[in-house]
Amino acid sequence: MLNDSLVKSLLTTIVEDEANLAVIESLNDGIETDEEIAEKTGIKLNIVRKILYKLYDKGLASYKRSKDSETQWFTYSWKFESNEIKRLVKEENEKAIKYYSDILEEENNVFFICPEGHVRFDYNLATQYDFMCPECGEELVFHDNTSIIKECKEIIENCKETFEKFSEKNG
């Protein structure tokens, strides 16, 4: 599943760099400690730990802590929770759809903008300011949001199609 483009994109967003996906691959290969991962991948230990905690925060990694009886130091053994990927993909897809659906609520409004780019108001708010920009005093002009609405609809449709294909492929 790690080779799926949707999963890879999501994981890259979490770990902030495609090169850092090596941490996940190491976990998937059975390497458990942060020191071992750093050694295998060549990624600095503090960055490996940062990545592991990000994965942990998203529910994609878990750990067990054990204490060395001689040194009294704790060792953390990490595990990649690959079964949580489906949940996270679904969750992120739903967030994106909600975000763009909220923007689509603009479909029922008329907007006015400052020619200098200071403000963007719906009709009701523009009337409160007598169609004048409160920052520079310029007259507000009509803003056609047709392209924004069209783009949002396309993005929502794409999200739905992509998730449907992902679900079919990954059960």
Describe this entry's structure for a reader.
By secondary structure, the protein is an alpha+beta fold. The protein contains seven helices and five strands, in the order H-H-H-H-E-E-H-E-E-H-E-H. The longest helix is centred in the last third of the chain and has 25 residues, at 146-170. It is elongated, with a radius of gyration of 24 Å.
Summarize the helices and strands and which ones pair or pack.
Layout: H1 5-15, H2 21-28, H3 34-41, H4 45-57, E1 61-67, E2 74-80, H5 85-104, E3 111-113, E4 120-122, H6 123-128, E5 141-143, H7 146-170
Antiparallel strand pairs: 1-2, 3-4, 3-5
Helix pairs in contact: 2-3, 3-4, 5-7
What attributes characterize this protein structure?
three-stranded antiparallel beta sheet, alpha+beta, 7 helices, two-stranded antiparallel sheet, 171 residues
What is the molecular shape? elongated
Radius of gyration: 24 Å
Count of individual beta strands: 5
Head-to-tail CA distance between termini? 11 Å
Describe this structure in a few short sentences:
This protein has helices at 5-15, 21-28, 34-41, 45-57, 85-104, 123-128, 146-170, and strands at residues 61-67, 74-80, 111-113, 120-122, 141-143. It has 171 residues and is of the alpha+beta class. The longest helix is centred in the C-terminal third of the chain and has 25 residues, at 146-170.
